[in-house]
UniProtKB/TrEMBL annotation:
One of its GO terms (biological process) is protein localization to phagophore assembly site. Residues 361-373 have a biased composition (Polar residues). Pfam families: PROPPIN. GO terms for cellular component: phagophore assembly site membrane. This is WD repeat domain phosphoinositide-interacting protein 1. InterPro entries: PROPPIN, WD40/YVTN_repeat-like_dom_sf, WD40_repeat_dom_sf, WD40_rpt. Gene3D superfamilies: YVTN repeat-like/Quinoprotein amine dehydrogenase. SMART domains: WD40. Coiled coil: none annotated. It comes from Phalacrocorax carbo. The keyword Repeat applies. Its main location: membrane. Keywords: Autophagy, Lipid-binding, Membrane, Repeat, WD repeat. It is found in: Preautophagosomal structure membrane.
Length: 410
């Protein structure tokens, strides 16, 4: 959640998200038009691009050097690409290809997967486990969990009754969130066991298409956005463990009674009673546009970032203690010069007072010095994690080697 990549009709752009006020454009390429997939390996110089001009071809670039590392062609259109430091996953409608990102060799082809017209899949950013999740059925909400390191199926999770619409791992790969095409219920499962941990109700009034589902880096929050104007943020906590002792009120008594009742009610009923409402919300001034969200810590405060398909980035303050309605503090244009819009309407409200800053100020996940050759900007490492120097020191994807010679394109 430290950088943003967008594909456009003229190419692609990469931005750094280190500041609220200033939107820094890291790179812009107009070599390939109509880019509909652009995936950057954290904050490194490796970027994977797919264009409508050649929808069956994946191009891997070292954008700082302006060189192509390699390209691969597949039997049908590429629908999505996911990558971490260990694996690169290419998802087609009825097959999945797993590459070793170090040398781009094809390690595994998963054939005859259920029809997956949207290319729905998720890959853990934690390369230590490299779990991959994808739909196990086209008619029900079954999830197939695949171990990208051992190249074996780990388990299947019967997550929803209807087909899946969204999947996402938390930063460590220990939790997996999912939503179905109805979009009314979001569930969180433990990984690799697949036990249900949380169940959140987004709403019952109408079915929605959830387009973005994302954890915060500390796994305390889960954000869901859809084709409606409302973004929901849920807090992952066990209320019975975290709530202070309630005063002896009628409502408090009833709450304890219902909590006790869940111990002997059927699982389906008790599950309904344990569903939590959103901890915080955002009402966008647009509806019907595809958008993606991220929960990030920028300048030591928690922020909600929303990027819309019309080319705008909205930054909101999130109160991690009280939740409620998030405050819009900045709007940036992604299709202009790469700098913030010179529009006073962007400063819709002054930043929130820093009264809760002490409770949310956290060390940035971006290491000050590199522990991994070629990834000096990388912000994806878990805190305290040291990447062995030899892991990326050889092979065609050695991004800090100025004498690198890209392999022959395939």
């Amino acid at each position: 959640c430290s950088s943003l990549a967008i594909g456009t009709t003229t190419g692609y752009r990469l931005f750094s998200l280190s500041s609220v006020e200033q939107l820094d454009q890291v790179h812009e390429s107009n070599e390939i038009p109509d880019v509909y997939i652009v995936e950057r390996l954290f904050s490194s110089s490796l970027v994977v691009v797919v264009s409508h001009a050649k929808p069956q071809q994946m191009n891997v670039y070292h954008f700082k050097k302006g060189t192509e590392i390699c390209n691969y062609s597949y039997s049908s259109n590429i629908l999505s690409i996911r990558l971490n430091r260990q694996r690169l996953v290419v998802c087609l409608e009825e097959s999945i290809y797993i590459h070793n990102i170090k040398d781009m060799k094809l390690l595994k082809t998963i054939l005859d997967t259920p029809p997956n017209t949207t290319g729905l899949c998720a890959l853990s950013i934690n390369h230590a486990n490299s779990y991959l999740a994808y739909p196990g059925s086209a008619t029900s909400g079954e999830i197939t969990l695949y171990d990208g390191n051992t190249l074996k199926t780990a388990c299947t999770i019967p997550a929803h009754d209807g087909p899946l619409a969204a999947l996402t791992f938390n930063s460590t790969g220990s939790k997996l969130a999912s939503a179905s095409e109805k979009g009314t219920v979001i569930r969180v499962f433990s990984i690799p066991g697949g036990q249900k941990l949380y169940e959140f109700r987004r709403g019952m009034k109408r079915y929605v298409n959830i387009s973005s589902l994302v954890f915060s880096m500390d796994s305390q929050f889960l954000c869901a956005s859809s084709n409606t104007e409302t973004v929901h943020i849920f807090k992952l906590e066990h209320l019975t463990d975290s709530r202070p002792e309630e005063p002896p009120t009628w409502s408090g008594y009833m709450g304890r009674m219902f909590q006790a009742a869940t111990n002997y009610l059927p699982a389906q009923v008790s599950g309904m009673m344990n569903q939590d409402r959103a901890f915080a919300t955002v009402r966008l001034n647009i509806s019907g546009q595809r958008n993606i969200c991220a929960l990030s810590t920028i300048q030591k405060l928690p922020r909600l970032l929303v990027t819309t398909s019309d080319g705008h980035l909205y930054i909101y303050n999130l109160d991690p203690q009280d939740g409620g309605e998030c405050v819009l503090i900045k709007k940036h244009s992604l299709l202009g010069s790469g700098k913030m819009e010179e529009n006073k309407e962007n400063d819709l409200r002054p930043p929130l007072p820093q009264s809760y800053a002490a409770t949310v100020a956290r060390q940035s996940t971006v290491p000050s010095t590199s522990t991994m050759p070629g990834y000096s900007e990388d912000g994806g490492a878990l805190r305290g994690e040291v990447i062995p120097e030899h892991e990326f020191a050889t092979g065609p994807v050695c991004l800090d080697d100025e004498n690198e010679f890209p392999p022959v394109s395939i």
